[in-house]
Amino acid sequence: MINPSDVLKSILAKKADQAEVFFSSSKTLKIDVLDQKVESIDEIEEQGIGIRVIKDNKLGFAYTSDFDETVLEETITRAIDNAANSEADEHNALPQKAEITILNLFDEKINRVPVAAKIKLALAIEKAAYAKDNKVKKTEKISYADSESEVWIVNSNGIDAKYKSNYCGAHADVIAVQDHEMEAGFGLSYVTKFDDLNPEKVGAEAAQRAVQLLGARPIRSQKLSLVLDPFVSTQILEVIASILSSDAAQKGKSLFADKLGKQVGSKLLTIIDNGRLENGLATAPFDGEGVPTQETKLIENGRLKTFFFNTYTANKGQTQSTGNAVRGSFKGLPMIGPTNLFIPAGKDDPKFFNQGFYVTRVMGVHTINPISGDFSIGASGILLENQQPVRGITIAGNLIALLEKIEGIGSDLRFIANVGAPTILISDISIGGS
């Protein structure tokens, strides 16, 4: 394996003011099954380095997956040339060295379990979906996947840190049929410990989510309480994550840009980002540029406390990075985003949220305007008073107004990958129906 420290020395020999070498490697396995047969087994491996240089406040970047000495020299030269051709920005800087706590993020069992056993696990997902309800007539996609990665960052300010991590997961898409009517349902689970993956639960959940909407019909337009399924709460939280970006706020492209210190939701609403969360899918000792991860309360009791910051936006905002530089791979510059983002579990048992419209599916959440907060999204679910399945309704309004009407937070926090939320009760919302 290449040593990033050697590459750093070569960069600094070319008179860069600051330099960083980001090495990453990844190995993924994906197994798809259908009708109790293996459809495909894909294994993908990738590794490479990304080079950032700063010269005269100008930033340059280049990457390569070829570690041949000549290619490395060409990549270094390209990064330096890119810096020379970019605009100077006084906020360009690399982070300083800080103490980093070692975390054990690697489950050896994920690697030890043979592929044959992982195939058996995928087949068990499909069996469980059919066993849950005889209305399940078809499986569209059943998958098992696992991934391991290694990251190593060195920079000219003394950072030299690395870690390994892995996770595994399962996904099911099924179709239920009744009276010539079809409904789709899904189940999924991603975990950092192989023993925590329950294939039967994934399959059964997919079946339940399909069957529960059979016979769904529109209802009349009215005002109702909304009870958001954790999957739906999580989708909305993902939109809020983009609004909590300091980059968006600094550019005036965030609904929360001028709301720091102000109420942006109900006093029941707290949103936390925790890059050190135990068993969190995005847990890491440091972020995509070597800053130690941390727990950050972004919204507390409805009040906006801070945004996600990386080193650049922290310099621009004269504050500290929150450890939220995220990097998809060595091929790109660090961006801003969440680690393990969640709304903490509340004290309410969600089974007592028994009036109103239980929203199990939303369409068009990504169309929520991140600047105005206005939205109009489609929804399906269950009318709780009579358990009537409902489809074809529209929920429209403003995001802050929606967050202000939160009246209950369930105790059933659930993560979908690295974003989590419980069942949420929202009062007095207008819905458009038939």
UniProtKB/TrEMBL annotation:
Any idea where the Metalloprotease TldD/E C-terminal domain is? Answer: 222-433
- Metalloprotease TldD/E N-terminal domain residues are 19-83
- Provide an example Pfam family for this protein: PmbA_TldD_1st
Query: A Gene Ontology biological process annotation?
Result: proteolysis
Any one GO MF term held by the record is: metallopeptidase activity
Its GO CC terms are: cytosol
InterPro entries annotated for this entry? Metalloprtase-TldD/E_C, Metalloprtase-TldD/E_cen_dom, Metalloprtase-TldD/E_N, PmbA, TldD/PmbA_N, TldD/PmbA_sf
User: Where's the Metalloprotease TldD/E central domain?
Assistant: 109-214
**Family annotation (Gene3D superfamilies):** PmbA/TldD superfamily
Q: Which PANTHER family match?
A: METALLOPROTEASE PMBA
Entry's family note: Belongs to the peptidase U62 family.
Q: What protein name applies here?
A: Peptidase C69
**What species does this protein belong to?**
candidate division WOR-1 bacterium RIFCSPLOWO2_02_FULL_46_20
Provide the taxonomic classification: Bacteria, Bacillati, Saganbacteria
